[in-house]
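Propose amino acids for all 102 sites.
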């Protein structure tokens, strides 16, 4: 029997799916745990904010690639909207985390 080979697209899709799963999993755990950590306070709140950053970035990877696959064959206006929305999301994640440590 011949060995089934994986294409580059299949490898990328599995990476995107893994990032989406990790992002959703961490986000779900954070919803439950963040209330407890914020009540306790201290350094546990910092751990929750780092976990939130990781979850947001994993969700970004899990959503950005499929969104680009949707937009890449559309008009230039769709591509501009995509890049602006992506930039706003990334800046929101980065500056949202930075504002926690002020």
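Proposal:
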């Amino acid at each position: 029997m011949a060995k089934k080979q994986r294409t580059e697209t299949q490898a990328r899709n599995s990476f995107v799916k893994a990032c989406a799963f990790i992002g959703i999993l961490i986000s779900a755990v954070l919803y439950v745990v963040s209330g407890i950590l914020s009540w306790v306070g201290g350094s546990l709140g910092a751990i929750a904010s780092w976990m939130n950053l990781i979850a947001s970035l994993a969700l970004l990877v899990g959503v950005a690639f499929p969104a680009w696959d949707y937009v890449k064959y559309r008009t230039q206006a769709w591509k501009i909207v995509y890049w602006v929305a992506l930039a706003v999301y990334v800046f929101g994640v980065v500056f949202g985390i930075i504002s926690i440590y002020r």
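The radius of gyration is 18 Å. The helical segments are 8-40, 43-71, 76-100.
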